[in-house]
Amino acid sequence: MNAEDPTKEREETKSALTAAEADGLNAYWRAANYLSVGQIYLLANPLLLEPLVPEHVKPRLLGHWGTTPGQNFIYVHLNRVIRIRDLNMIYISGPGHGGPAVLANVWLEGTYSEYYPAVSENEAGMKTLFHQFSFPGGVPSHVAPETPGSIHEGGELGYSLSHAYGAAFDNPDLIVAAVIGDGEAETGPLSTSWHSNKFLNPCRDGAVLPILHLNGYKIANPAVLARLPHEELENLMKGYGYSPRFVEGSDPLDMHQKMAAAMDACLDDIKGIQQAARNGGVRERPVWPMIVLRSPKGWSGPKEVDGKKVEDFWRSHQVPFAEVRTNPAHLQLLEDWMRSYRPEELFTPSGALRAELKALAPKGKRRMGDNPHANGGLLLRDLMMHDFRDFAVMVPSPGAVEAEATRVAGAFLRDVMKENMAAANFRVFGPDETASNRLGFLFEVTDRTWMDEVMDYDDHLAPDGRVMEILSEHTCQGWLEGYLLTGRHGFFSCYEAFIHIVDSMFNQHAKWLKVCKQEIPWRRPIASLNYLLTSHVWRQDHNGFSHQDPGFIDHVVNKKADVIRVYLPPDANTLLSVTDHCLRSRDYINVIVAGKQPSWQWLDMESAVRHCTCGIGIWEWASSDTLDGDPDVVMACAGDVPTLETLAAVDILREKIPDLKIRVVNIVDLMTLQPPEEHPHGLKDRDFDDIFTIDRPIIFAYHGYPWLIHRLTYRRTNHYNLHVRGYKEEGTTSTPFDMVVRNDLDRFHLVADVVERVPRLRQKAAYVKQYVRDMLIAHNEYIRTHGEDLPEVRNWQWTRTLKPSTDGL
Amino acid sequence: MNAEDPTKEREETKSALTAAEADGLNAYWRAANYLSVGQIYLLANPLLLEPLVPEHVKPRLLGHWGTTPGQNFIYVHLNRVIRIRDLNMIYISGPGHGGPAVLANVWLEGTYSEYYPAVSENEAGMKTLFHQFSFPGGVPSHVAPETPGSIHEGGELGYSLSHAYGAAFDNPDLIVAAVIGDGEAETGPLSTSWHSNKFLNPCRDGAVLPILHLNGYKIANPAVLARLPHEELENLMKGYGYSPRFVEGSDPLDMHQKMAAAMDACLDDIKGIQQAARNGGVRERPVWPMIVLRSPKGWSGPKEVDGKKVEDFWRSHQVPFAEVRTNPAHLQLLEDWMRSYRPEELFTPSGALRAELKALAPKGKRRMGDNPHANGGLLLRDLMMHDFRDFAVMVPSPGAVEAEATRVAGAFLRDVMKENMAAANFRVFGPDETASNRLGFLFEVTDRTWMDEVMDYDDHLAPDGRVMEILSEHTCQGWLEGYLLTGRHGFFSCYEAFIHIVDSMFNQHAKWLKVCKQEIPWRRPIASLNYLLTSHVWRQDHNGFSHQDPGFIDHVVNKKADVIRVYLPPDANTLLSVTDHCLRSRDYINVIVAGKQPSWQWLDMESAVRHCTCGIGIWEWASSDTLDGDPDVVMACAGDVPTLETLAAVDILREKIPDLKIRVVNIVDLMTLQPPEEHPHGLKDRDFDDIFTIDRPIIFAYHGYPWLIHRLTYRRTNHYNLHVRGYKEEGTTSTPFDMVVRNDLDRFHLVADVVERVPRLRQKAAYVKQYVRDMLIAHNEYIRTHGEDLPEVRNWQWTRTLKPSTDGL
């Protein structure tokens, strides 16, 4: 653009940009700001070809201006470095409620019109762009799944940086620019996610460029980080392990020079770090660059409205002034504001961005809106997977052998890890619990990711490890989401109680998936988010009450049926089958709950596969009813410990009351219980009635809070006869069996439940009830004396099955 | 202890302690360590008066040794400064799973035997202390509600520092020592809670002394902060605004000197800061001191077991070696380990701590185990409260006036704040949303707490403000919990969707309350934790799908019925009544869901009080059934928006089908729906049947996920006829009425539901259904054209009631 030699001019003026370059960036920024204001305010007259009248303005004004100009500024500068350095970059908008910024930019760069042809690059398209924003039937006010180039909603704050790192892992050529608002920076999840740099390997991973955007204010308050003394803030960023560069001010041309210089320096640093590591090997954790951008909130907007400060203040957070339809002064203010960007210099008469500005955007897939990493399904490759049957536990007959379910699954995961090592598209995540959750076989083929110092006695720590452990469920979840959304696969194991820490993150991911699946055909399916919840409520007897909470399932089932799945495999082979299924699935959130302790195994591999395929089944090998005619009682169970207690109760009942006809039903896929109208896995009513009968008592032993089973089955014919035992919030440090006794889920209570509910047993009730009472007293005395469970409980084994388990299914 | 002049000796040796003082502290520390190991391992032979045999050892070994010696070390040094400076101090054990440490120390100082006389200060008591730990019928392995001196469980990590600050607010004489494990330090909530110092006023608040305990390892990994280069860690702490002092090493006597010097310096600093502020006024935020203690994990325990590194490594995290009953070498190792503390020097032959060591503990209420702040109910004073009726909205007849419910409640809260300003025992908490949630009247009497720089245009920021705002729900919740647990009152307002961020913190507080109420008579009742959830699912039309989630209620009702309450006041006067009730209640978690938008008001104050007292009621003024005979349909509603839609539907039905007998039921107290066996507020079945009939269709419009109503009512007689509308996870940026339409909760769908379910209306179905279809089509067209709701919806008003609302109840 400058006829003279730009390099020379830059050298002479000691500037990052020539005057013409700075002007160009500023014009592009003005265009983005203009389009942002237009989206918030206008229905029509997008180019201001005629004077504004109230009818041009939306009746309801919804949007967030405050963060928007700062994000436009950042985006413009990222475009510059992408263009001149040919970078592969995506953009994460932490303050995602600044939707107008990203929408403006992806429209300017041309991506938006490619994804949504109706929003074309002309006046009509600009009018639609404005009209649709935050308008019924239009697009959300936030950076949402509908927004090309985004993997991050930004409505619930805290996760931008962990998403960014998740995207960068195993993408060595990718740079993820992550804008962190000073509001978001106050959240816990964001505060700890700065430490993600301890897990980023400059050889095999890409880079994250954090841009902490201090615009000073939240909704109504200054932001904490924005008011820190400079030295404290600098110390904080250095303490997090970054080298911060400060870009501070409000004069646009001056700020363009500073920002361009800072960007260039950061990208030089990134290149230097990566080259050094990739040529010389990883020696120590690098100090990565980052930018602190301090710019006014609502920058370039009205300084005052009705005599009150707006620019550089919280009043610009949302819509700076709202009486535009009714107050002519406000209408004039809006028109003056929009004309201050001089749209006639930015757009052609037909409404397209002028060519010399368009040239400042990157091209094709280099445009951040069109980078395939932000539509990860495009890049997704299936996992290479061994046949999970090869890891089967040999189960000659039900209850004949013990195994630790998660350890068996760990062997399978190890081989998945090994098979996909070259593809570099699978990682395992967890808060310091991979070994504790008995997935330690993984360490035969990989290590824990660790970029800091390693001692010679340390255990499987390495920069190229693929097990990601940090004691922050938030960070694990954020990394995993970022990894999945950019087209890879993962697995998250966690203590069951503490997965509640990410309840709200789960919500947001479930909402993202729902919208993508139902409404956005161009979003390609991504790998499911797989949780393995172990160290569960029934075996936290050593950690006590604070570690006992099975409520995540309840939380999960509130979300849309077509994105959530819940599995309760009762043993190792069913866990294998379920794990295989989950790793192959797409666009779901799969919750698997399984134990890690040595437990009796019930199903051989073929039976397990059949059982998991149905999701629910009658265990005839355990039942004493005949094929013709209904049983006296249905004993249903879901979860490993409830299954154990149910079978032990069946054992007692069959001994005490040999002619009792018991049907044992086991549920792996909890969603089979719901009606098919509610969940695609729901059993048809007729099938449900066949299994549970229409009139016999059902004693249901459930892993979690019992009322969930009622909530799932209240429309079923025989719901009236359903009696559920589960966790009723009783617990402490005790023995494993005492935990079930405290919650009436133990074999003895189940026996009593059966006797109480089968009418013809009433005459036998007395002696069986006496037996139950005696056993519970004996239990109490024994644990208080010996500190461990009754030998007859500890040593109990199912011995009734002589035939192999496959026969029964 | 030293015959010579200790001051002189200290000066001459340039040490904080004389040799004798260091020896004394070390002996006390050995005693605490000895008792800790004993708790983890022994059933009997507590003084090792005879050689250990397997029978002396517990059959199941449960406990966490790793953190314990470090915490013992800290506790001993805190005792020293309390004693020599006469400090008022409580102790927060972030690594609360190190239960043996606190139990050992409160026993040594004599508190434990006062609270639990059976655990006396002699051999028998010591045996009980050992036996009961992590033993069935005994005490939890964590620092739990059962532990005197604790307000913090430490099982779920992340909240120690926010609890500590919550305790320090408005307690100017209190110093809260907060031990933060390096595992906990990785969590999000902890990472941001360091910034709590920006909200601590040295004049009116106490002090927090953070002690970051780097013992290097978590369960299986090094800790991130423990492996940072020294300079980074120091920058991090300085960046958080603290002045760190490092105490690092492993030689006990050397470490005692360093720790005593660091403690003295920190306490001098605290005193200096407080004196300067209290004499000269608050000028700027002080830089508070903190300690970084780097000591080996499992310090003083076995260095190796079976040739594997244990001390200073993750293998010492729990029980360092476990085969003590079966492996004679392990048994010997245990005996050697315990004898290495030389118990015979520490305890009298009868098992009491020797007098010269006992003298090192503080006395009476100065003992951290007996500090009344750690049993806050002891200090709790009732709030002074204006009669909430004085803030009533005048409602001449139902639907005659509009009001913003939370704004009205805000006026009440303002006066509560004012009345209790002198007592300094009430604060309001929220993530930057107090004004947005329309509680702004509070700012007439107080400000937002803010210790950093204040600009002249800032809005109600001051060091002595009593509204606590930080954009971290975790920190708000942690502060509030700490404030309540130390005997004060509080109120937390939050966007409904984002309260899920603290789901797991809610869990832990509910568990704490449950245990206190049911099992620990010496724990005195504390003020309830009150949530006001507003900006709720139905009025997040501008922020869109990410902000729409009413599931916190579902989460809450999983906890014990005797600690949780859920209220859905339909208008301002009911919100006033409920708020008053919640502020007066004790030991509950109260969840109030209420809107902030201008809405029609239904009940005058007296009606509102009566309605809230019952928790549920028939609104006869809206009903068209007669007192004798059952209605054709029951239209039930819970929540402000469902109430509006129900009444609008009733209005339509009464116009279209004048002879239809409709009964309108409104539910304020959701727990009335449950059977009384499940919740103390549950209606008796007969009363429930009277209200809901036993055979008429019930159309229930509910604020949240509809299945919750089924889960609460599935045992009720007429459950079969219950049809619930609620949020079914559909939403985006749209209009308020479109939100209810998308979820079938709108007046038109409710009308259709009624017509479909009342048998005698079938012949009228066609024209009413046509009306519904027409209206929904008109709605869709109108919002897409105009961007706002149909005028007949926006302008709808209830005009049927001529009599005052009180008559109808």
From TrEMBL, chains A, B:
Write down a Pfam family by its short name: XFP_N
Q: What class of enzyme is it?
A: lyase
Molecular function terms in GO for this entry? aldehyde-lyase activity
SUPFAM superfamilies named in the record: Thiamin diphosphate-binding fold (THDP-binding)
Tell me the leader sequence span.
none
Give the InterPro entries listed for this entry: Phosphoketolase, THDP-binding, Transketo_C/PFOR_II, Xul5P/Fru6P_PKetolase, Xul5P/Fru6P_PKetolase_C, Xul5P/Fru6P_PKetolase_CS, Xul5P/Fru6P_PKetolase_N, Xul5P/Fru6P_PKetolase_ThDP_BS
Swiss-Prot/TrEMBL keywords: Lyase, Thiamine pyrophosphate
Biological process GO annotation list?
carbohydrate metabolic process
Q: Which domain of life is it from?
A: Bacteria
The record places domain Xylulose 5-phosphate/Fructose 6-phosphate phosphoketolase C-terminal at: 596-798
EC numbers: 4.1.2.-
Cofactor(s) for this protein? Answer: thiamine diphosphate
Family statement drawn from the similarity comment of this UniProt entry: Belongs to the XFP family.
Annotated protein name in UniProt = Probable phosphoketolase
